[in-house]
UniProtKB/TrEMBL annotation:
Pfam family, one: Glyoxalase_6
Name of the protein this chain belongs to: VOC family protein
PANTHER family: CONSERVED PROTEIN (PTHR35908:SF1), HYPOTHETICAL FUSION PROTEIN (PTHR35908)
Chain ranges of the VOC domain: 131-244
């Protein structure tokens, strides 16, 4: 059995407005599975497919209070493309964000509700990822995250050091999942988290039990009676195990 990363879940006070921003930023389409939920995926995309990690923007009235521990990095193909993309995103409502990054070749921005993201300088590794180069998660121990997430999903571990762990779909397509060591301590539940989905024919409760055996723990974020299961990884990062599809 195995799971795969199919989407990121992003809280927003105004899901429609934040959804429009990200749809325009990525060149993706917009749909909705119900009130308060804005779904984003590439045009013509057949969900789920490792070629893209989709985004669900979900309405939540609670305001953002700390830096997100999960963010996306956007890919560019040239320095001119990077500059043009930054300008276009600011025209859409993004604002510069100072996270103490100093003099770096990438640009840190925040979306209209303050969700941080990076516009990377061109890098060969991200030439074929699509608009999202990587989904990035802050952590204290990248090696421990590599062990857990490498077993939790059927993605391939490409790199692991004391400072970084890098995974990607075993099919070699779509964005990377990267864990970076940071000194920040997690203090609140993550407004942006990962959603995993078992494969068709797999058993969701059995998959959840397997993840618990790997070190995941049950967590209550007020989800109530829902068909998915909310867990936390060994560093407390919330994630959801959806029904097989």
């Amino acid at each position: 059995m195995a799971t795969r990363l199919v989407q990121i879940h992003m809280k927003a006070g105004d899901d429609a407005a934040v959804g429009r921003f990200w749809a325009q930023a990525l060149g993706w389409g917009v749909s909705s599975e119900g009130p308060g939920v804005t779904n984003l995926e590439p045009e013509g995309f057949v969900y789920p497919d490792p070629a893209a990690v989709c985004i669900d923007v979900v309405r939540d009235p609670k305001p953002k209070t700390v830096k997100n521990r999960v963010h996306v990095d956007l890919a560019t193909t040239s320095t001119a493309h990077q500059a043009d993309l930054v300008a276009r995103l600011q025209g859409l409502g993004a604002t510069p964000a100072d996270l103490g990054q100093g003099d770096v070749p990438w640009t840190v921005l925040a979306d209209p509700e303050g969700n941080e993201f990076c516009v990377l300088e061109p890098r060969e590794i991200y030439r074929d990822t699509g608009p999202i180069a990587a989904v990035v998660v802050d952590c204290a121990d990248p090696r421990a995250m590599a062990r857990f997430w490498g077993e939790a999903m059927d993605w391939t571990l490409h790199k692991v050091t004391d400072d970084q762990a890098v995974l990607r779909s075993a099919k070699g397509v779509g964005p990377y999942l990267e864990f970076f060591r940071t000194p920040d301590v997690k203090t609140v539940w993550n407004r942006v988290h990962l959603d995993l989905r078992p494969y068709p024919g797999d058993d969701q409760p059995a998959e959840v039990a397997r993840l618990r055996a790997l070190g995941a723990t049950d967590i209550d974020i007020g989800q109530g009676d829902v068909p998915w299961t909310v867990l936390a990884d060994p560093e407390g990062n919330e994630f959801c195990v959806l029904t097989p599809l």
